[in-house]
Amino acid sequence: MSHARTARRLKEHVAALETMTRFVLATLALASGVYTYLGVRSLLDGDATFVFFAAIVYSVAVSVGIYGFWIYLSRFLPEMRDNGSRATLVAIMAVGSAMIIAMSSWLNAAALAGSAAVEQHLAVTQEGYTADLDQANSNAIGALSLLPDIQRAGERFARLADDERRSGALTGTSGSGSVVQLLAQMAAQMRELEANIQASRETVGTLFENGQMHLATMRGLVSASGPVQPRADAFAHEAVALAGVIAALEQTSIAPSVVRAAADLSVGFIAPVADGASADLAGRQNQIMDTIRASVAAQSDALSAAATEIMKQPKVAERRFVPLSSAEAVILYAGSFLPSWAGAISIDLLPGVLVAMLAVAHAAMRRGEEELSDADRITAADMLRALELHNALNARVESRAATGGELSGEPEPSGAFSVENVTPIAMADRKRNET
């Protein structure tokens, strides 16, 4: 009897929850339709009226489709008795769930987290531009690291020229001769190269400050409140301006000029003719100028090598800001919004849990009924109908006996029947025929 009570109670509960089941499915379908509408509206462009009606039509179609899909499954899947049919419907449910995710869940996620995803896209892009600006600035000011070497070389040439002029430290004869002129020439070239690098420092500094201003504006747009789309449009404007600053910094690098200037020191070396009054002094002057030539060549090679290393630094790759809709952004950054995705999918697929619960309940009812005998299957309503039929048959027999219908040989009416003509039907067969 415990199985009978369990099966009966389960049947009563399923019947009592029929309205609730429909209400739950309708509510979930409606919620999914609302968020689908919000997601679709963010994707469509054009006239406001067209966007409104197009989004409404799509969201209504999604709501009706989801509701019908789960209603069909809640009716058919619990009634499947063989494993083949049950597995087929489960496979159909899996395919339908994937289709629901494709047509609705990602739009729900866009409605739930679309603005945050677009803001994250802006933040990631801003970080990329920050790195690009720093790298471009580093490349542009790389030649400044050569400034101490150039200053040191220029000072050395100037000091040697001054020493030669005052005391003849190189040739042994003081005065402004060919050696002094050559040393002064080399010192002047070094000072000219130093001035060029100093001038590039100011240009690079100005460009870097402009880039920092654009970055500050972009950071403000990312963290500001309000609708995200106008902020994204302003962000795109700033991104274009910042890309121009970065390109200008790439072209401002003085390193190529340093390489050419260093090559000119050696290739363009012009030594004056020794102007010594005596052959001995002229010989010493030629010897010192050869030494200066070697020194200039070594300095040229060192500067060229250092500037070449600076030029080998990786160039800043061209970066373009690509605006994204909320739906595109929530897909691109799905890993950062897993809770929103889980909520969006759960709204659409939660009815599957209800269908599974109904399938388990119906399976338990069938198992309970299969273990019952025919007597245990009889309900009070069955007993009352059986008593009514028995009383009707007895009354009919008594009526015919009282009128003597059997003795007078009167033919039985076409609609008459007797107890002897009634074929007994097993209770199990009767229950199966009723269902």
Protein architecture, described:
The chain has 435 residues and is an all-alpha fold. It has helices at residues 2-16, 18-41, 48-76, 83-140, 147-167, 178-223, 228-252, 255-267, 279-311, 326-332, 338-370, 374-377, 380-403, 427-434. Residues 406-435 have low confidence and may be disordered. The chain is rod-shaped, with a radius of gyration of 48 Å. It has three domains: 2-115 and 335-370, no CATH class; 118-324, no CATH class; 375-434, no CATH class. The protein is built from 14 helices and no strands. Keywords: Membrane, Transmembrane, Transmembrane helix. Residues 402-435 are annotated as: Disordered. The chain crosses the membrane at residues 20-38, 50-73, 85-107. Residues 404-415 have a biased composition (Low complexity).
What structural keywords apply?
435 residues; mainly alpha; 14 helices; 0% strand; transmembrane helix; membrane; transmembrane
Span between N and C termini? 22 Å
Portion in beta strands: under 5%
Number of domains: 3
Structural class: mainly alpha
Instruction: Write the H/E string, N to C.
Output: HHHHHHHHHHHHHH
Low-pLDDT runs = 406-435
In round numbers, the mean pLDDT is 79
Using only CA atoms, what is the Rg? 48 Å
Helix content: over 70%
Determine the number of helices (DSSP H or I, runs of at least 4 residues): 14
| Strand count | 0
- Indicate the overall shape: rod-shaped
- Largest sheet composition: none
